[in-house]
C-alpha cells in the first residue's frame, strides 16, 4: 500500500470510528428526556431493567424499562416480549434488556405519549428475586459463625490441656 493510501485509510478510520462507536452506544433516559426533540423519530439503543407489568395484547405489547434515571414505555411486537418473564418490583430484579427502536417524543399512535417502538429487544441479563437470596446469605453467615465458634471452642479446649 502506498503512503498516501495508508494515510487516507488512517484518516478514514479516525473519522469513522467515533461514528460507529456512537451508533452502538445506548442513550440514557435523562438524555432522551432532555434532548427529546433531537432524538424524536430517530433510531436509538436504550438499556435498562424491565419494571412493573408486562402487558401483551394480541400481537403487540408494552413493557416499562428503567435505566436508573427514568422508566420509559416500550411498545413491541409480542414475539419480542415472550422471552421477558421477570419484571422488577419490590424484592425482585427484573430482566435487563437492550432495546433497539425508534424514540417518539409524542407518539401519534399512542395518545401523544413519550415512548419507544422496539425494532428488536435483547435480554442481556435474567432478573431474579432478591428476597429469595436473603435467607441463603443468612444461612452462609450462620454456617460461618458456627465454624468460627467450633474453632474457638477447639482452641480453648486445646490450650487448657497445656
Ligand atoms: Zn407509540
Would you give an account of this structure?
With 162 residues, the chain is of the alpha+beta class. The protein has a domain at 26-131: Beta Barrel (OB fold (Dihydrolipoamide Acetyltransferase, E2P)). Helix content is 42%, strand content 36%. The chain contains 5 helices and 7 strands; from the N terminus they run αααβββαββββα. It has helices at residues 3-24, 29-34, 36-39, 78-81, 130-161; strands spanning 43-57, 60-66, 71-77, 92-93, 96-107, 113-125, 128-129. The strands form 2 sheets. A 5-stranded mixed β-barrel has the order 1-2-3-6-5. Strand 1 (43-57) and strand 2 (60-66) form a beta hairpin. It is flat and about 80 Å long. It starts with a helix and ends with a helix. Zinc ion binds at residues 75, 104, 107, 109-110, 115, 117.
Question: Quick summary of this structure?
Answer:
With 162 residues, the protein is of the alpha+beta class. The protein has helices spanning 3-24, 29-34, 36-39, 78-81, 130-161; strands at residues 43-57, 60-66, 71-77, 92-93, 96-107, 113-125, 128-129.
Fold blueprint:
Elements: H1 3-24, H2 29-34, H3 36-39, E1 43-57, E2 60-66, E3 71-77, H4 78-81, E4 92-93, E5 96-107, E6 113-125, E7 128-129, H5 130-161
Parallel strand pairs: 3-6
Antiparallel strand pairs: 1-2, 1-5, 2-3, 4-7, 5-6
Defining key terms:
two-stranded antiparallel sheet, flat, alpha+beta, binds zinc ion, 5-stranded mixed barrel, OB fold (Dihydrolipoamide Acetyltransferase, E2P), single chain, 162 residues
Helix content: 40-55%
Task: Outline the biggest β-sheet.
Answer: 5 strands, mixed, barrel
User: In DSSP terms, counting alpha (H) and pi (I) runs of 4 or more, how many helices?
Assistant: 5
Shape descriptor: flat
Count of beta strands:
7
- Main-sheet strand order equals 1-2-3-6-5
Distance between the termini: 83 Å
> What structural category arises from helix and sheet content?
alpha+beta
CATH first level of the domain at 26-131: Mainly Beta
What molecules are bound to this protein?
Answer: zinc ion
Low-confidence stretches: none
CATH topology call of the domain at 26-131: OB fold (Dihydrolipoamide Acetyltransferase, E2P)
CATH H level of the domain at 26-131: which superfamily?
Nucleic acid-binding proteins
Helices and strands, in order, run as HHHEEEHEEEEH
Amino acid at each position: 500500500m502506498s503512503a498516501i493510501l495508508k494515510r487516507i485509510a488512517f484518516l478514514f478510520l479516525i473519522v469513522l470510528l467515533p461514528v460507529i462507536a456512537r451508533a452502538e452506544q445506548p442513550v440514557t433516559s435523562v438524555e432522551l428526556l432532555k434532548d427529546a426533540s433531537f432524538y424524536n423519530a430517530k433510531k436509538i439503543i436504550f438499556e435498562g431493567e424491565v419494571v412493573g407489568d408486562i402487558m401483551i395484547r394480541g400481537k403487540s405489547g408494552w413493557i416499562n424499562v428503567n435505566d436508573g434515571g427514568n422508566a420509559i414505555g416500550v411498545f413491541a411486537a409480542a414475539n419480542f416480549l415472550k422471552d421477558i418473564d421477570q419484571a422488577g418490583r419490590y424484592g425482585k430484579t427484573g430482566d435487563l434488556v437492550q432495546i433497539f427502536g425508534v424514540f417518539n417524543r409524542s407518539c401519534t399512535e399512542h395518545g401523544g405519549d413519550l415512548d419507544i417502538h422496539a425494532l428488536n429487544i435483547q435480554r442481556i441479563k435474567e432478573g431474579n428475586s432478591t428476597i429469595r437470596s436473603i435467607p441463603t446469605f443468612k444461612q452462609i453467615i450462620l454456617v460461618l459463625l458456627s465454624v468460627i465458634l467450633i474453632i474457638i471452642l477447639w482452641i480453648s479446649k486445646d490450650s487448657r490441656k497445656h
